[in-house]
Amino acid sequence: MTTSRKTKVGIIGGGPSGLLLSQLLHLKGIDNIVLEKHSRDYVLSRIRAGVLEHGFAALMREAQCGERMDREGEIHEGFFIAHDGVKDRIDLHKYTGGNSVMVYGQTELTRDLYEARDKMGGEVIHEALDVTPHDLTSNAPWLTYRLGDDLYRIDCDYIIGADGFHGVSRKSIPKDVLTEYEKVYPFGWLGVLSRTKPVSPELIYAKTERGFALCSLRSQVLSRYYIQVPLTDRVEDWSDEAFWEELKKRLPQEVADQLITGPSIEKSIAPLRSFVAEPMRYGNLFLAGDAAHIVPPTGARGLNSAASDIYYLYHALMDHYLKGDDSGLESYSQKALARVWKAQRFSWWMTSMLHSFPENSTYDQRLQQTEMEYLLSSDAAKAALAENYVGLPF
Ligand code: APR
Ligand code: PHB
Questions:
Q1: Is the C-beta atom of 49 inside 6 A of ligand 1?
Q2: Are 275 and 260 in contact (CB under 8 A)?
Q3: 32-35 and 179-194: which strand pairing?
Q4: pLDDT of res. 391
Q5: How many CB atoms lie within 10 A of CB 236?
Q6: Crossing angle (nearest 10°) for helices 362-377 and 327-354
Q7: Residues paired with 153 in a beta bridge
Q8: Is 229 touching ligand 2 by the criterion CB < 6 Å?
Q9: Atom of ligand 1 nearest to the CA of 303
Q10: Does 18 sit in the ligand 2 pocket, CB within 6 Å?
Q11: What pLDDT was estimated at residue 49?
Q12: Where are the beta strands (DSSP E) in 283-339?
């Protein structure tokens, strides 16, 4: 027997996209249910990005989830680009007329969203298996899922596919409706989290002949470092010692001398990939976040692009339910994609400028070097970088 119930908005995926939308809608009295495949502990064990755009931080506050972020997160008004043994600062504050980013880990942000959902009695169903959307092009789409041996059905007005890159939502859209764009880079990032004081209070993006490196942080006692590695490398091949040694070789001497090393708490390799699926709406299914697009992490756009989708969807659904105005829903895909592609462009540009590309000709290498020289010598170019890094307007 199947147990049936109704809600306005059925949300697939309890990552940051799904939870943030759920919380924002609930605050406006719009009923919703989140179906998450994994347990909460599993979702909270994933170490992901940590740089939030100003507009995203504002959305967290609007969702009444900004308190711990404002207390423990760090406002960063600049970052460094290291090259040829030196580092140059990009002054985000100066080049954006006072804007900045918030450094606060996605894991912490997700925890805050879960706590807020609990406090309000929001419904997040974990370990929901075989989630399947039905009748997407009708006015009465529905979802089915399984908990153990029990089957459930939820009738909805709208379904939101916020179930990440490997989720079921995008796969429910017929192939002839969807166009997928993809770029796979020939390398990955090996990341290490360590309970050590960060080498720099601000992030350092380093370009060297040995490959890219990034010094990032979660707090003043928790560091996150990355190095570019070939796709053939496996995490088991990298001892902590080998990682620290290689990282030091990719940093300017004065930075390497300051680096405090320690045991890794987490170590993983993530391949670099760009992906966009168009359109982001099919009937009454709306895709959001990683379900529709992926960027390489270089420009810190992944989580932020998810947040901008949620911003547009939240406003569109509010206009529908509170004002009877469907224009936001009608224009969602087009509006979201316009911003998504700008984030794709920026991530591609940062990735191209900072990494070693094994297949590059000497001509390509000279162009890459010139791109960096131009950036660091031009206020206009730095302003363009800063404008994108702090986040384009919604
Ligand atoms: N049914 C239900 N839930 C699912 C299914 C499914 N078939 N498939 C995946 N999920 C869940 C995943 O377990 C995950 O918790 O959907 C969630 C999707 O979360 P994320 O992958 O974190 O995606 P999203 O919420 O869009 O977050 C934005 O941007 O670049 C990234 O690192 C950034 O993960 C972040 C993402
Ligand atoms: C991170 O801290 O994990 C991080 C920061 C900036 C990036 C990518 C990752 O561009």
A1: yes
A2: no
A3: unpaired
A4: 97
A5: 7
A6: 110
A7: 4, 144
A8: no
A9: 29
A10: no
A11: 84
A12: 285-287, 293-294
Ligand 2 centroid to residue 214 C-alpha, Å: 8
Query: How many residues does this entry show for the chain?
Result: 394
Compute φ and ψ for 350, nearest 5 degrees. Answer: -60, -45
Q: At what angle do helices 16-27 and 106-119 cross, to 10 degrees?
A: 30
What are the structure tokens assigned to 30, written together? 């719009």
| Tokens 């179906």 sit on residue | 35
Q: Which ligand is nearest to the CA of 302?
A: 1
CB < 8 Å & 24+ apart, contacts of 89-93? 89/202, 90/382, 90/385, 90/386, 90/389, 91/382, 91/386, 92/386, 92/389, 92/390
Does residue 50's CB lie within 6 angstroms of at least one atom of ligand 2?
Answer: yes
299 Cβ inside 6 Å of ligand 1: no
Which single residue is written with the structure tokens 């080498």?
199
Q: What pLDDT score was predicted for residue 1?
A: 79
Low-confidence ranges of the chain (pLDDT < 70): none
User: How far, in Å, CA of 340 to CA of 96, rounded?
Assistant: 20
- Write the Ramachandran bin of 307: left for phi over 0, alpha for psi from -120 to 50, otherwise beta: alpha
